[in-house]
Amino acid sequence: MRASRRRLAVLGLTLALLTGACGGGGSAPDDSAPAAVSASERAAAAEKQLAKNTLVPLQGEPPTPELPVTVDSSDGREVTVEDASRILPLNGGVAEIVFTLGLGDHVVGRDITATFAEAEELPQVTKAHDVSAESVLSLRPTVVLADTDTGPKEAIDQIRDAGVPVVVLDPATELSDVTTRTTRIAEALGVPEAGKALNKRMNDELAAARAAVPKGSRPKVAFLYMRGSAAVYLIGGKGSGADSLVEAAGAVDAGKEAGLDKPFTPITSEALVRAQPDVILMMTKGLESVGGIDGLVQIPGIGQTPAGMNRRVVDMEDGVLLGYGPRTSLVIDILVDRIHQT
């Protein structure tokens, strides 16, 4: 799996609590919504916002790009961006950042992982996660945003050879990467102050989400990546992407604690017994692919863990859980509530 696609390719009380508030000192669009004060209330507000499948851009007028700018690209190049009027992000989390910065009207296409409502009508330029250079160039982008896992390489080279600036970013695999990517994207698009405002908003939201962790609760959570139809059964360890979220939500990543030093390891009964998770975390489609909780506990070893015996399974929508974008604090709010329940 490409790292960005695992996440398939994820955010006080400053969002009025997550019911649509905007950063930069602004107030919520719905000022009548009460501030959530408990983990369950925060989670309910987060679930309501995620159910809308929409983004909350920074309040105020959209920023005006100040260009040209020259930025470092993660493929070792220096890239000069002279025009941000036609932006093409080739990653769902990157697209979320661009829209939240207030530049959604400049976006001309999307990749398969950009599943939020604002992007639905945009032409898709990827096929099974592979970029089609012809589709990209047909949209006449003035700047393309990719990451080091975007491919195939030949397609990226073809886009660059056509004269389109391609800014490559490092994949986001942990919480701190969200603000780092936001800073780099904002700088590449000539709106650094908007990037600072968005980072402040996200940091405030994350601090509020973490503050709701119940004292003294440290459940062990195992992230399982499954695709039943393809017989893919993996447990996450160090660097899975989920480990950072689990820890931010005040829990222990069971795979990491059990000594799994690779992002993903095939599930075995022995690994599960060693991990002994209290809670299992999954992507929604992955859980559905094995027949829901009833099917999951029939997989060897899972039914013998505390999580399996107590049917403690938390699932979240694929594109959001490991998206590592501006909605990550919503993920933390939900995890704080659901993994600490007794």
Automatic annotation (TrEMBL):
Superkingdom assignment? Bacteria
Keyword tags: Signal
Q: Which InterPro entries match?
A: ABC_Transporter_SBP, ABC_transptr_periplasmic_BD
Segments forming a coiled coil:
none
Extract the Pfam families matched here: Peripla_BP_2
Q: Which residues form the Fe/B12 periplasmic-binding domain?
A: 86-342
Q: Which residues form the signal peptide?
A: 1-23
The family line of this record is: Belongs to the bacterial solute-binding protein 8 family.
Protein name, UniProt field: ABC transporter substrate-binding protein
Source species: Streptomyces cyaneochromogenes
